[in-house]
Design brief:
- The chain has 2 domains: about 210 residues, Aspartate Aminotransferase, domain 2 (3-Layer(aba) Sandwich), CATH 3.40.640; about 120 residues, Aspartate Aminotransferase, domain 1 (Alpha-Beta Complex).
- Helices cover about 40% and strands about 15% of the residues.
- The protein contains 14 helices and 12 strands.
- The strands form 2 sheets. A 7-stranded mixed sheet has the order 1-7-6-5-4-2-3, with helices on both faces. Strands 8-9-12-11-10 form a 5-stranded mixed sheet, covered by helices on one side.
- The longest helix has 19 residues.
- The radius of gyration is 23 Å and the shape is globular.
- The termini are far apart.
- The mean pLDDT is about 95.
- Bound molecules: pyridoxal-5'-phosphate (PLP).
- The site of pyridoxal-5'-phosphate (PLP) has 16 residues, from helix 4 and helix 5.
- One of its GO terms (cellular component) is cytoplasm.
Length: about 375
């Protein structure tokens, strides 16, 4: 090593390697990997080395993807910069120009927007139909249909998808299936085990779990996931090592958080289902033997003043997302489903008084009291 200051400043902190093993996985915060010589470099292309350039692969990103794949009992996984990026990559691994997708109408607004606005640019046709009755799915299938797309628990009205029926329809018509499992998480349900080809997560939500990460994970059949991985790399939709590392940290407590989330949600739903200020409550029944999810959606359009309700919340924050440790509320009409045509929102039941509650990890008495006092103040 040169003794010149400028050279030392650039090189000194790159050389250290330590013998002691760290307890936790180090963060490979590097955009690229280095090689001893040209043969070593060729080793990557011969498949002897896993990493070349972080956009194409990184140990932390791989950790997150493979961990979620294992929890879903799927053979392969890939992580992406966001849930949306993972959804796009998954779809593009199955459908291309001239192909057609049948998707459920009552999905996350961002996915709806991706399907109707972006996929057209790729020459992919979409039919959005009500999946409440699967005869609609069968009727929507065309000669060029490649994929059936839905969510295991839909956002925001929490309809539980009949996965077995979708898989059956797909088999009969030689189609692939893709399910967004964000609300359920692999703790509550693993759609791949029931025959779904690709399972996607907005890891931004429960997987990372602390509202400080944006990430997506796609798991499923090896060939499809690898194909999606190529799309992520080509599109530059890769996840950063630090966000992946945070995602892995979150994943370690997924089961513990979900247990409490689900328990609190169940108790809150029980109290609110009899509340005088609520027109309608949405909460899945018998979703899985570990619980029914941690989101409770209420419709207070007729009985409350919605602005007063939001203003009356004292410590629960208005947050256009979900799944953090803190209980939060979101307003689908104003945020997640804002881009949907009003007529579709009305059809689906996404009303002016719909509130999606992401039930957190606090003491359940405090959560119940907070909603009760806000509803009492908002009551017309
Ligand atoms: C069910 C569902 N899928 C996908 C997404 C998109 O995820 P991301 O924001 O990580 O891109 C969201 C975001 O809210 C969601 O709720």
């Amino acid at each position: 090593m040169s003794e010149n200051f400028d050279t030392k400043a650039v090189h000194l902190n790159n050389t250290a390697s330590i013998e002691s093993k760290s307890k936790t996985r180090p963060i490979y915060q590097t955009s690229v990997f280095s090689f001893e010589n040209l043969d070593d470099l060729e080793g990557y292309f011969r498949g002897e080395k896993n990493y070349l350039y972080t956009r194409m692969g990184n140990p932390n990103v791989n950790d997150l993807a493979i961990s979620v794949a294992k929890l879903e009992d799927a053979p392969e996984g890939i992580a992406a910069a966001s849930g949306m990026a993972a959804i796009l990559a998954g779809i593009l691994s199955i459908a291309g120009q001239g192909d057609h997708i049948v998707a459920s109408k009552d999905i996350y607004g961002g996915t709806h927007q991706l399907l109707v606005e972006e996929l057209k640019r790729f020459g992919i046709e979409i039919s959005l139909v009500s999946f409440e009755n699967h005869s609609n799915v069968k009727e929507a299938i065309q000669k060029n249909t490649k994929l059936i797309y839905s969510e295991s628990i839909t956002n925001p009205l929490l309809r539980v998808e009949d996965i077995h029926s979708l898989v059956q329809i797909a088999k009969e018509n030689n189609l692939k299936t893709m399910i967004d499992n964000t609300f359920a998480t692999p703790y509550l349900y693993q759609p791949y085990k029931d025959g779904i080809d690709l399972v996607v997560h907005s890891a931004t939500k429960y997987i990372a779990g602390h509202s400080d990460v944006t990430a997506g994970v796609l798991v499923g059949h090896t060939d499809l996931v690898r194909e999606a991985g190529q799309r992520i790399s080509n599109l530059g939709a890769n996840l950063s090592p630090f966000e992946a590392w945070l995602g892995c940290r979150g994943l370690k407590t997924l089961h513990v958080r979900m247990q409490r989330h689900v328990e609190n949600a169940y108790k809150l739903a029980a109290v609110l289902s009899n509340h005088e200020a609520i027109d309608k409550l949405y909460y899945p029944e018998s979703f899985s033997n570990r619980g029914n999810g941690a989101i409770v959606t209420i419709d207070i359009t007729k009985k409350c003043d919605i602005k007063t309700f939001f203003e009356a919340l004292s410590w629960v924050k208005i947050v256009p997302s979900l799944a953090g440790c803190e209980t939060s509320v979101s307003y689908p009409v104003g945020t997640s489903h804002r881009s949907l045509p009003e007529t579709l929102r009305d059809q689906l039941g996404i009303t002016e008084g719909l509130v999606r509650i992401s039930v957190g990890l606090e003491d359940i008495e405090d959560i119940i009291n907070e909603f009760d006092q806000a509803l009492q103040k908002a009551l017309l």
